[in-house]
């Protein structure tokens, strides 16, 4: 078997020698930088709400929205990172540059939390209502550091997994098997980074120094960048082939410019320039887009050769790729709300925990460390699914586990139940708060919150893997990168929807009654249980819409057509 990887090149731009490039050593450097990224991002996100409320003297709702906006922007910027990697920078440069940006952001955040001039003085203990709010400059430094981190995170998330996969040759059976192990280990390293963040790092923030904890994040990223650069000459690189976003826009522009033209009676007359092996056959759905492939007089030049300007004329395959992406959108839209409920684990659940009894013997559990049950639920659910459910399902149904749509549906249902459990737990916590005279920790165990963490963790295990599988396997070959971006955008929009709901709900509920609203400054005086109940109700409605969308998607899938075995077609490069 050849030792040359024809589709990859080495540091010198030559075809990659598989004996000298790729494999587990360079992949290990990429796993290391992803672990440090998760350590930094989650170490900041899970405990940021307590810093904003306790140190920066912000309201509960404002603190929660800053956290959800930060996380939402991080995932939204994955789209930008993917575009830059596909079109200009390549995956290695995108990962390296993004890591540097994130390192600068975490270093600035460490300074922001450590220097007294960059946050307001502590509240007056004699009069807790008189707290000096953070100034514009102090908030400006905080925002700058957070969104530098978000920019770096977006670039890393968009390209790290793909660059790691580039180190293995899918045409080589042995390396293809290693590629499957890489994705398993990639998820393991993500979970490990999260686990360390919500335990060790959060403890350092609460008991030692928040500035030191963020300094550790910055230092770990610096070490990871150094390790990444050590492997520069051992990596395999892939050439950029342009962004699929441009292909989608080209189809839309071409179809719009030819909107007045009639479609030919025979679809064989539509323009096609892909070879049979890579061609996608025409379907009748979304026929308006077919006009992008109609050959008009303006598509010819004087010598009779077709003008292959992709903004004026697109192939049937390009049009069908866009149709395939459109078919994904109903599933895409109905998975957004899951990540809205997920956002509550990083914000209000931590706020709840901070008011409850968290002592075990003489040890005080940091409020944000309760999310360890969420991470453990993810890992246990995946382990049980891989080792128990899949073998049993294969014996019973003859299939290797649940389909991606079934896994998503199970995750959405668990999120609805998880929010209902959160509402019940909050009702109990609030009743204790109303009857208690304690001004610090309420006489109710923080472990009352465990069910909502476990249910949401199990829900994420099914939804995350189901979504990722769905968007990658169901998208056309030329749109794999875009489909991964769509997945991250659902997470991003989920966080933004959470911020929007918090603002709307607080504005509406504060206009009647006592004026406190459901999500007021004091969580004990609010009605967080009602907010959780609303999310559970919306999740059930969304679950019903998802089932309708999944049924529609399966009904709209084109029937497989056998590829042509004769006839010559021009390769795409002939344009």
Automatic annotation (TrEMBL):
<feature type="transmembrane region" description="Helical">
    <location>
        <begin position="325"/>
        <end position="345"/>
    </location>
</feature>
<dbReference type="InterPro" id="IPR000109">
    <property type="entry name" value="POT_fam"/>
</dbReference>
<feature type="transmembrane region" description="Helical">
    <location>
        <begin position="444"/>
        <end position="464"/>
    </location>
</feature>
<dbReference type="Pfam" id="PF00854">
    <property type="entry name" value="PTR2"/>
</dbReference>
<dbReference type="InterPro" id="IPR036259">
    <property type="entry name" value="MFS_trans_sf"/>
</dbReference>
<feature type="transmembrane region" description="Helical">
    <location>
        <begin position="211"/>
        <end position="231"/>
    </location>
</feature>
<feature type="transmembrane region" description="Helical">
    <location>
        <begin position="405"/>
        <end position="424"/>
    </location>
</feature>
<feature type="transmembrane region" description="Helical">
    <location>
        <begin position="142"/>
        <end position="165"/>
    </location>
</feature>
<feature type="transmembrane region" description="Helical">
    <location>
        <begin position="365"/>
        <end position="385"/>
    </location>
</feature>
<feature type="transmembrane region" description="Helical">
    <location>
        <begin position="92"/>
        <end position="111"/>
    </location>
</feature>
<keyword id="KW-0472">Membrane</keyword>
<feature type="transmembrane region" description="Helical">
    <location>
        <begin position="485"/>
        <end position="505"/>
    </location>
</feature>
<comment type="similarity">
    <text>Belongs to the major facilitator superfamily. Proton-dependent oligopeptide transporter (POT/PTR) (TC 2.A.17) family.</text>
</comment>
<feature type="transmembrane region" description="Helical">
    <location>
        <begin position="531"/>
        <end position="549"/>
    </location>
</feature>
<keyword id="KW-0812">Transmembrane</keyword>
<dbReference type="InterPro" id="IPR018456">
    <property type="entry name" value="PTR2_symporter_CS"/>
</dbReference>
<dbReference type="GO" id="GO:0022857">
    <property type="term" value="F:transmembrane transporter activity"/>
</dbReference>
<protein>
    <submittedName>
        <fullName>Uncharacterized protein</fullName>
    </submittedName>
</protein>
<feature type="transmembrane region" description="Helical">
    <location>
        <begin position="186"/>
        <end position="205"/>
    </location>
</feature>
<feature type="transmembrane region" description="Helical">
    <location>
        <begin position="66"/>
        <end position="85"/>
    </location>
</feature>
<dbReference type="GO" id="GO:0016020">
    <property type="term" value="C:membrane"/>
</dbReference>
<keyword id="KW-1133">Transmembrane helix</keyword>
<dbReference type="GO" id="GO:0006857">
    <property type="term" value="P:oligopeptide transport"/>
</dbReference>
